[in-house]
Amino acid sequence: MSKIRIMLADDHTLFRQGIRTLLSVETDMEVVGEAANGGDAVDKCGETRPDVVLMDIGMPGLSSFEATRQIKKNRPETKVLFLTMYDDEDYLVEGMEVGASGYVLKDSPAAQLVAAVRDIWRGGSYLSPRMLSQLVDDFRSRIKSANRLPRFATLTTREREVLKMLAEGNSVKEIACDLTLSVKTIEAHKFNLMRKLDIHNKAQLVQYAIQKKIIKIPNLV
User: Fold this and answer.
1) Which residues, other chains included, contact 130 with Cβ-Cβ below 8 Å and sequence gap of 6+?
2) Model confidence over 18-45: pLDDT tens digits?
């Protein structure tokens, strides 16, 4: 059975040595090369023809993302797995855009790294659980935002009535008289509707009412 050929690209020698030692106990894996920067990773990838490259983010010289792009262009069959300390969604997205198959954080358990290498070698993809959790939380937040009711829909029938009358130029006292309610009650409705609509003065209120076709623009003679 052929082993998974792995190349390590990281600018920290001790870290590379640690990963080499970690992977050496896996009977289906072998480290075939090391690189200390992005440019070196591209060159050595052509020489060693690895199945998987473990790529650090933030190495000197050629960026890891550009190095990944070149590796995938030169050897599409080579899989790239980012192994990094950055739990950053922007880095994750950029990594996927340039062709990486996985993203593993350096503080992950050894078993996760080994599983990630095997998964992407088989043609799959892998994300550290913490990164996956962040993406799920972000997705849920976007769904909540999408499902949030429009501000106008949060107004009560009475608040909409008061909004219309205010926009038409009626004073709080006049509205209270017309609706046979207390001035204090109308003031409360006015406060609530302006808070819900994030409106802070009479001009904004009138403009909002016109935009929503609550009132019509007066005809100018």
Assistant:
1) 87, 105
2) 999 999 999 999 999 999 999 999 999 9
Q: Which of these ranges, 74-78, 117-121, 132-136, 161-165, has the smallest mean pLDDT? A: 132-136
3-state helix, strand, coil in the chain (%, to 5): 55, 15, 30
* Domain positions in the chain: 4-141, 151-211
The rounded distance, in Å, linking the Cα atoms of 104 and 73 is 22
Task: Say which CATH architecture domain 4-141 belongs to.
Answer: 3-Layer(aba) Sandwich (3.40)
Could you tell me which of 92, 90, 89 has the C-alpha nearest to residue 81? 92
Q: In terms of pTM, does the model score above 0.70?
A: no
The per-residue pLDDT of the chain, averaged, comes to 87
Task: Specify the amino acid at residue 184.
Answer: K
Distance CA 69, CA 80 (A): 10
Rounded to an integer, what distance in angstroms lies between the CA atom of residue 194 and that of residue 172? Answer: 14
Which CATH architecture best describes the domain 151-211?
A: Orthogonal Bundle (1.10)
Do residues 175 and 186 touch, judged by C-beta distance below 8 A? yes
Look at the alpha carbons of 15, 16, 19, 21 in this order and tell me if their dihedral is positive or negative. negative
Secondary structure string (H, E, C) spanning 39-71: HHHHHHHHHHCCCEEEECCCCCCCCHHHHHHHH
